[in-house]
Amino acid sequence: MSETKQSFLSRGNLLLAAVVTLGIVLPGVARRLLGEAGYNDLGMVVFVVGYAGMVLVVWYGWIRPLDITGPAE
């Protein structure tokens, strides 16, 4: 009757939060700084590449390995 309690702050959840935060915050700050320096188009490219990279990392690391299938007949 011993139940294992899983903490919300597990290693996987913390890593996911870090990847998502860094994938949005760092490209956003870089885009802002480049925009203020007069390189608005380059800043936009940096943000899009950073955000897309974060999406790919999340997909490859957490979503792709899930076995999402319907019930077997």
TrEMBL record:
Key word Transmembrane present: yes
Highest taxon, organism lineage: Archaea
Keyword line: Membrane, Transmembrane, Transmembrane helix
Pfam families: DUF7996 (PF25959)
Transmembrane segments: 12-30, 42-63
Protein's name in the database: Uncharacterized protein
Organism: Haloferax marisrubri
